[in-house]
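U., I forgot to send this yesterday:
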Amino acid sequence: MKLPLRYITLLVILSLTGVFAYQTYWLTSLYHTQRSEMGKDIREALRTSDYNEMIVRVRQMQNDSSAQAQVTVSTGYDDERAFTKTHTIRSVKHGDTIRVSIWERNTADTVPTPQAALQADIATMLFSNKSSADELASNFQQGLHAAMDVLNDPDFAVFDSLLRKELLHIGIDTPYRLMHLHLGSTVDSSYTFTDTLAIGGTADYRPSPQATSYNYSYDLHGNWNYLLILEPTENIVLAQMAGILTASALILIILGFAFGFLIRTLLRQKTLEEMKTDFTNNITHELKTPIAVAYAASDALLNFDTGTDPAKREQYLRICQEQLRRLSGLVEQILGMSMERRKTFRLHPETFPPEEVIMPLIEQHKLKADKPTGITLRIEPENLTVYADRTHFGNIVSNLIDNAIKYSPGEAQVEIKCRTENGWFILSVSDQGIGIPHDKQRHVFDKFYRVPTGNLHDVKGYGLGLYYVKTLTEKHGGTVEMKSEPGKGSEFTIKLRMKNEK
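Result:
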């Protein structure tokens, strides 16, 4: 089955692009919303601080025995059924009375009188764009200011202190400048002026060109103002969104890794599929060859009277034996690969001298080699032992010797060394063969993998030998390493734990 990798990759890219675009749009919208809310919170902080400053003045007046004041707020209907809100402040010391009234349209079900209808029209004009309770409260607060400010001026220091607390409450802990301004003009409006009555805020703070100004007017005509100057709030908004931004980034990273792992798995599956196909074709050919040769030899013995000639008979029998041995080795390798994946697979380790297994293997490989072969074995110390499964240990060494011979052009020179180091049994098999290119070395232990040789197929193999070596070595709890230089040869090193280290 061919995997539609191109289409899957395209769908993955489109999916990631869509998720990233949606996340970007959502985060951008959230950022602008947060900035807008931050501006509203700052203006509300100014209004709240102004209201609290007036409350402080009222309490001071109530506690001042020399200048007591009476503050009265009343709401209800007048004689014409028009709804009114009246705020009265009376100074006992000065005998002054100030009354501020704010009219609203009559909402009763009764039919208004002509005078009430006129008052309703006036109220409609006044509040046509200020229907919310907040806007009405703001107008009422401005009227309250007009009454309070006649008795005593706003306390700028108190307002500054209250504003600082309000800004901290909404998460703004940055330097700021606060100014108390009076805007006015001549009678004919030919000349306007701005008086700076007081300056507060953070000491030594100088606003940058990017600083933002927030103006709050506390009178009905906009002549008396508080001006707040802050640096841009982008960093504050981003800090408040840090959790959301981090979570979004983590989600995108996880999705990227997940899709990347999917593509990588598909690529590996495709490569494995191709390698299995090559393996099937190769193994079919390798199985047919010894069968055909053994069949031809046995056919000659049966049908051409070669059995009467002792020399011919021995020759054909040896051919049959050799081909059957080759076939048996191939089947054994395939079965070994199948068995190691089973859950019931078990090793049967024992302690034995390594030369008991290695020496017979050296003789066998010398006999079946189709080229001059020299194999040397060095064991230090001489009484060295290894703790491993005897059968699989022999197969590991046999595969390494077989590779060393196959990939040695001309005469093969193979050196086998056994030694100990820090509680490890170390076996190395080195040759002077063609070596392995550096960019291919990381794949040599993969199942079914064979180093590409172009159109040349002069070296027989199935891509299972080194995979078997690595798998069974790791089953023993050991490791396998490789060093190779193209044109200079290769060295494979097996490390197994000694029994007394277990």
